[in-house]
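Sequence in, structure out. First:
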Amino acid sequence: MVSASSDHGIRVYKKYEDFSALLHKNNDTTYVVNFWATWCKPCVEELPYFDQLAEKHKGEKVKVLLVSMDFADQVKGRLKPFIKKKKVQSEVVVFDAPKPNEWIPKIDEKWSGAIPATYIYRGKEHSFYERSFDYETLESVVQPFLKK
């Protein structure tokens, strides 16, 4: 049974095993998965660049997924109003799994757990960045995946 539930239209994942399916789709689409939170200033500053990337590559096989690390009980009172106010266009899910020291290295063994962090993949190829981006740098790290 999948532990993902919908809280006001936003999927909430409570188990890494369910969430990990979002990180392992083996097809010809490039996935840009950004880990962020409403309380993280660098995360909030870079959010528009992910929407800009999605808009630029509309019609191409590029999917942006914004993974909020906010607590699941904050979806209604904090996350949804934030998304509306900031006019976030990309898909947002919440990942609120316990025991981060167990699942963080499964996403990337070099990840300290700090955010913002971005996981980009296409098929079996992937890159991981524990840093914030400006638009030009984000576009430049996604480009090699689009040329495959």
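Second:
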Amino acid sequence: MSWSVFEYGNVKSITDMFGKTFINNKPVTDLHHVYGAILVVGITVTLGFFASKAIKKSGNSMIPTDKLDARNIMELFIESFYNLTKDIIGPDAKKYFPWIASFSIFIFFSNLLSLIPGFVPPTDMLNTTLALGTFSFLLYNYYGIKKQGAWNHFKHLAGPIPALAPLMLPIEIISNFARPMSLALRLMGNMAGDHMVLGIFLSFGVFAFIAPIPIMMLGTVVVIVQTTVFTILSIVYISMAVEDHH
């Protein structure tokens, strides 16, 4: 990880509060993903507050303003991902969209931090992305059980042909439990790689303000694509869990 302003928060008295890491059982020394996540939550809550205030001020008018403000930013974002959710899930998209919107907004602004020198995105850390992947896993299983019932939800893992059930069941179980890690590694790997490349170009001394421009343009595409990929896969998983099985 390159230098970031979050390093100033990695004081021992604070890191000691988090104990040891789960994977290698070592003391926590880097909390950049925690501070980054707090910053992103602050940004999104602020945008949501001003967007809500602008809507109330306009008398809930459907006509957008002619300037780029918090309302236009949030409406553009929400409308794009709602249409995406509706195209995949169908008329019931409203039931699941609040969670989908939360995923997409948090991941988008987290990824966006990778384009700002001195900031490290919380999504370049497996701790963050695995938490998001695990929550996605719990979410689509919850909605699947709620819609189908526990027996029917897990019954479809065996497939529609009873004779193939001994083959399909272990494959489907492994596939389902691999989804959180797949989501986590894909998002973390792309964001960590993109931020690392940008950090290398920013260290080019006199060319630091010129060399990274193409990388930052490419990074913008990565930010959007990775947000969309994670969101689409989560929508697809929910759609598969709640569809009627025959």
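Remark: The mean pLDDT is 82.
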